[in-house]
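Example for tutorial group B:
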């Protein structure tokens, strides 16, 4: 009797050591698989940009999954911060999937976020270079609520802010902003239906544009 129980425990221990690496490999593959939703381009206008004049238009181009029937909204957000990593403004916009275009066989959509050049205290920021993180989310209406289904990797880069004197000496133009896409981390929701990345709990539920400040 005792020998049988010891044999059973030994078998369970052996199975644990055999199956554990398989489970870890599966999680690793899921995290490194390409996302069907990603940011492929960011432009800003005007360039140079100076607070106190027209707002900066941050236009984000998002590549979408091929099948969009189950999705209702595209949300694009951007967190702007100073070099010390202190957040100064959060911009977000939701829109229905009514302006989808096809490029290179892939569906795409553009969204424009407007930044007035102000910080969390609603004061114009000084001249300098500011960091940003942009992200896209596909959402579907379920039981009357907009629920996040797919999130893109982060796109990170910098934004240059000029003084009004600098702006007066240069002609504004459209500039493509270089960015780095963060491919790390899971792109789909977990089994409990929760966004695996930190989400913005107080974002609006209806389509449209909203802003909030982050300290």
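The residue assignment follows.
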């Amino acid at each position: 009797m005792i020998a049988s129980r010891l044999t059973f425990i030994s078998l369970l221990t052996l199975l644990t050591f055999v199956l554990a690496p398989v489970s870890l490999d599966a999680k690793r593959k899921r995290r490194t698989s390409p996302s069907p939703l990603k940011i492929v381009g960011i432009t800003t206008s005007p360039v140079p940009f100076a607070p106190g004049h027209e707002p900066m238009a941050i236009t984000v181009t998002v590549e979408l999954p091929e099948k969009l029937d189950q999705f209702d909204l595209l949300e694009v957000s951007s967190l702007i911060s100073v070099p010390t990593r202190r957040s100064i403004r959060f911009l977000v916009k939701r829109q229905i999937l009514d302006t989808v275009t096809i490029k290179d066989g892939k569906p795409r959509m553009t969204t424009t976020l407007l930044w007035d050049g102000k910080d969390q205290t609603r004061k114009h920021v000084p001249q300098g270079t500011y960091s940003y993180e942009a992200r896209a989310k596909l959402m579907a209406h379920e039981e009357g609520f907009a629920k996040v289904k797919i999130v893109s990797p982060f796109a990170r880069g910098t934004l240059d802010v000029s003084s009004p004197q600098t702006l007066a000496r240069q002609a504004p133009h459209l500039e493509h902003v270089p960015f780095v896409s963060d491919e790390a981390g899971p792109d789909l929701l977990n089994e409990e239906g929760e966004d695996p990345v930190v989400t913005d709990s107080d974002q609006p539920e209806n389509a449209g544009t909203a802003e909030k400040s982050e300290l």
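The CA atoms of residues 143 and 205 lie 13 Å apart. Compare this with the pattern of hydrophobic and polar residues in the output above.
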